[in-house]
Design brief:
Elements (H helix, E strand, L loop, with lengths): L2 H15 L3 H13 L8 H13 L3 H13 L4 H15 L6 H12 L8 H13 L6 H14 L11 H13 L3 H14 L14 E3 L4 E2 L12 H13 L1
Antiparallel strand pairs: 1-2
Helix pairs in contact: 1-2, 2-3, 3-4, 4-5, 5-6, 6-7, 7-8, 8-9, 9-10, 10-11
């Protein structure tokens, strides 16, 4: 081990003895990764993370949450994950915690009731914070919520356009499944007649112009067109 690393490790240990949270977190990382001459020991790493967490160290709280979440095979372990995520939640601006909560709500784990609406909320928070992993799950959850509650006003809006927005974002981020999702949506859109107040035709003769084969309309979306689009998209995609 280089002398400068030994010297640095000595100062980190001294700081950790004084319960300095950054030093405790560093030692936890060293033990978890098995680096800087320290043998890998996950249990010792957890002890250091726990001590740093008790001092309010956000990264340690998130690390403990991730470790518990990753090996969560029972409710107690998952509740521990939620506990640590909750401690760090107010300081998180990465979307990591929201992503974890979304998955817990989606699958009904960790003391969370299985809930489409809660998972939609947390995936939405993660997506707004820029977590690209949340884009496609959010699009799918929005479509599922729209299908389940179709015909019931949800904040006065149809959720399909919002689902498509996040699906396109996911496609742009390189999500292959989102590309298929968007292609199906675009194919569906080419067959919708927007003249819903006067025409009952559902097929468009001109895909490029989206002109109806019956009324030749190429107009703007009428009042209830979003719901008709939503019904068609859901039947094709979900």
């Amino acid at each position: 081990m280089p002398s400068n690393v030994k010297k640095g490790l000595k100062f980190i240990r001294l700081a950790a003895e004084q319960d300095e949270p950054t030093a405790l977190y560093a030692l936890g990382q060293f033990h978890y990764e098995g680096m800087n001459g320290i043998k890998r020991d996950v249990e010792k790493a957890k002890v250091f993370f726990e001590r740093a967490s008790n001092k309010g160290h956000t990264k340690s709280q998130m690390t403990l949450g991730v470790l518990a979440f990753g090996r969560g095979t029972d409710d107690y372990t998952m509740k521990r994950a939620v506990h640590y995520f909750s401690l760090a939640c107010n300081k998180d601006d990465t979307g990591e915690i929201d992503m974890m909560f979304a998955q817990l709500c989606e699958h009904g784990k960790g003391g969370f009731e299985k809930s489409l609406l809660l998972s939609k909320h947390y995936y939405g928070e993660a997506a707004k914070k820029g977590d690209k992993r949340a884009f496609y799950p959010l699009a799918k959850i929005l479509m599922e919520v729209h299908r389940k509650y179709f015909g019931i006003p949800i904040s006065g809006h149809c959720l399909v356009p919002l689902a498509m927005y996040w699906a396109v974002k996911a496609k742009e981020a390189g999500e292959e499944s989102a590309s298929v999702f968007v292609e199906k949506w675009e194919g569906c859109m080419s067959r919708v007649c927007f003249n819903t107040t006067k025409c009952k035709c559902k097929e468009a003769s001109d895909v490029k112009k989206n002109a109806c084969s019956r009324c030749k309309s190429v107009g703007t979306v009428a009042r209830n067109a979003k719901e008709r689009i939503g019904r068609m998209v859901i039947s094709l995609i979900v």
